[in-house]
Design brief:
Strand order of the largest sheet: 1-2-6-7-8-9-10-12-14-15-16-17-18-19
Strand content: 5-15%
Radius of gyration: 37 Å
Helix content: 25-40%
Largest sheet: 14 strands, parallel
Number of helices: 15
Structural class: alpha/beta
Distance between the termini: 77 Å
Number of strands: 19
Length: 655
């Protein structure tokens, strides 16, 4: 720090000298500040000039890079691809993924022009949406499909408050994580197609909604909830698509849903979603080739479905399904049309109505090949009128009926022959067993019965098969539907009502057996090795490869009998390779090999097919040791404990 060369204490002369120096220092400071400001201004001018030059160079570089990219794209091999061939490639993508047009049209301007010039790419509507989404997506999809291309429409309307069912799935303790419908649930394969709960899994840029639908439409849909409407609350997602491998995986158009409560204005808008959407859809009804609309529960604008009325000359498949039943008044729509109504729906071959109003005499319920009806609980149709619905469709190939409250028949039930029916699914009230007594089904392949238990059902099944000329039945399901559970069988109306399993001896072609709410030991004993003590001289169901039981409670030695049955049907595979039915290398019908070991012998005691799939849902606590042994003998094993026998930490949940 500088010091003053002045005397202390100051004198008058020193003070005068200091004041003179102070004046000089003020002048010097002002001069230096002026020079410093000038230097700073010069530097700022230089920086501004250089920054401006850099910006100009950056803009010039960006323009050159854009030009370079366009030039590279122009000389790339894909540009030399003829537009006709490009259209063929787009069609191949369309066959694999119905909504591929949304992705293809967002690649480049050329592809967008080509995609928009091909109405067929927009002819399959696959949409999972909510009332909070804009119905304008449907309008845009229809506009891009042109005016003459037939439409394949499948729309799933989900409720935002719907439970995902994750808690229930985690509460179930499994020894092996195999999907519960791996062997085919009667409500999923060849039976009902009721929409199950929607699950949500997070993906980059949004929330993917996975909807599994079984039955006649083996699809897993993951489609854009909001595709193109920018002003909607659910906006478009970032353009980079998440990694996916499945044909129904989420396209880059999917948007994440907002979680905050909807405003009153938004709620009012939701009330009109159905009217807007079905206005656009019904306007194109003459182009419908397939129309599927599924929803989980009644929504505010459900009355818009009443507008489905008119000619649909191309319509081949029609489905309206609701998961939960609701009350509906007298609807005047196509399924409730009067008997003398004349609508052009001559191409209709598949009809599914679940928890929706319909009239038994509607012209829509005629000349079908596939029919699924699940009535409302408030609908009471006489049994003879239900039989009339069946008789009005003599060319049926699959039939699924579920009536919870039918009335006694008014007119006598006359026999009805369905020469082409291969799959029959009956569920609901016990009166439907009388309907079964009136049917002749010479080519029946699959029989699914989930009728309320009042009388033993085995005699009805035996009489049906005998009356139909003993068709080669390959799949039988008894009370394996949604009415069974861990406590099924303790109350009237939930069991399979099978007094004796001897009728299984008539089912030599049976490959899959599903049973719910029946005692475990009698069924296992019937499927075990032939035993003279119980009157069996040959194997029952020798072609059986899938066995599923739900709510079949065991008493005493049930687990031991299960092990004995598996040991008999699936001996240690050391005798050679298995054939298509598990018969190769295991001895034949001459009493040699394993047939003789199991007390066989003779022409009717051939070794049966090996079990390939075993399911035990809420039957008995098998134990991890027995489960491990079962897995050494059977390819796929699913075991779950009854709820009243579970406790935390008993088993390790395997995923």
């Amino acid at each position: 720090m500088a010091s003053l060369d002045l005397p202390e204490p100051p004198t008058k002369a020193a003070i005068a000298l200091a004041r003179a120096q102070l004046a000089d220092l003020h002048g010097t400071t002002k001069a230096l500040e002026a020079r410093l400001n000038a230097a700073r201004d010069a530097l700022a001018r230089i920086v501004e000039e250089r920054t401006a030059a850099i910006r100009d160079l950056e803009r010039e570089l960006a323009a050159v890079e854009d030009r370079l990219a366009l030039t590279k794209a122009y000389v790339s091999p894909i540009k030399r691809l003829p537009h006709k061939l490009l259209r063929h490639i787009f069609l191949f993508n369309f066959e694999d993924c119905a909504w591929s047009a949304w992705v293809l049209s967002s690649v480049c301007s050329l592809w967008r022009k080509v995609a928009l010039s091909m109405p067929i790419l927009w002819s399959k509507i696959r949409l999972v949406t909510t009332q909070a989404s804009s119905a304008e997506t449907i309008r845009l999809w229809l506009e891009r499909s042109g005016r003459t291309v037939p439409l394949d429409i499948e729309i799933i309307l989900k409720s935002p408050s719907m439970h995902t069912g994750v808690v229930d799935s985690l509460a179930r303790r499994r020894y092996l994580s195999v999907p519960p419908h791996a062997a085919g649930d009667p409500w999923m394969a060849g039976g009902w197609t009721t929409p199950p709960p929607l699950g949500q899994t997070g993906v980059a840029g949004g929330t993917a909604v996975h909807l599994q639908i079984g039955g006649a439409h083996p699809t897993v849909h993951v489609v854009p909830v909001q595709a193109v409407v920018p002003n909607d609350a659910v906006g478009p997602a970032p353009p980079s698509p998440p990694p996916h491998t499945h044909e129904w995986d989420m396209p880059p158009l999917m948007a994440s849903e907002r979680t905050q409560p909807l405003s009153q204005q938004r709620l009012r808008k939701n009330m009109h979603w159905g009217h807007i959407a079905f206005y656009y859809l019904v306007e194109q009804m003459h182009r419908w080739e397939r129309f599927v609309f599924r929803f989980d529960k009644q929504f505010a604008s459900i009355g818009a479905l009443k507008s489905i009325e008119g000619d649909a000359p191309l319509l081949r498949e029609f489905e309206i399904s609701c998961t939960d039943p609701a009350f509906y008044g007298d609807w005047k729509w196509l399924p409730s049309a009067p008997v003398n109504a004349h609508f052009d729906i001559g191409s209709l071959r598949t009809l599914t109505l679940q928890h929706m109003p319909f009239k038994w005499s509607s012209p829509m319920l005629r000349n079908l090949r596939h029919l699924q009806l699940r009535s409302l609980p408030t609908v009471h149709i006489a049994l003879d009128r239900i039989l009339y619905i069946v008789s009005a469709n003599p060319q049926l190939e699959s039939l699924a009926l579920h009536f919870t409250s039918p009335n006694q028949p008014v007119l006598p039930l006359n026999p009805v022959t369905l020469p082409e029916l291969k799959s029959l699914n009956l569920g609901g009230h016990y009166l439907l067993s009388s309907l079964l007594d009136s049917l002749l089904l010479p080519v029946l392949d699959t029989l699914i019965l989930d009728i309320e238990a009042r009388d033993p059902i085995e005699e009805t099944v035996s009489q049906l098969l005998a009356r139909s000329g003993t068709p080669a039945l390959t799949r039988l399901s008894l009370s394996y539907g949604t009415n069974t559970g861990p406590h099924a069988g303790f109350y009237w109306g939930s069991g399979s009502a099978v007094a004796s399993w001897h009728f299984l001896g008539e089912l030599d072609h049976l490959a899959a057996l599903q049973v719910g709410s029946a005692p475990l030991e009698p069924l296992i004993s019937a499927l075990s090795a032939p035993d003279e003590d119980n009157g069996q001289d040959r194997w029952v169901c020798p072609r059986l490869v899938t066995l599923a039981m739900r709510g079949c409670h065991a008493h005493g030695d049930g687990v031991a009998k299960l092990v004995q049955m598996v040991e008999a049907r699936n001996p240690d595979a050391g005798g050679g390779p298995l054939g298509p039915l598990g018969l190769g290398g295991m001895g034949g019908g001459n009493g040699n090999g394993a047939a003789a070991m199991f007390g066989g012998g003779g022409g009717g005691a051939a070794v049966p097919a090996r079990l390939r799939h075993l399911e035990l849902y809420d039957c008995t606590a098998v134990g991890p040791d027995v489960t491990k042994w079962l897995k050494t003998r059977i390819e796929e094993v699913v075991c779950t404990e009854p709820s009243f026998e579970r406790y935390e930490g008993r088993l390790l949940l395997v995923h």
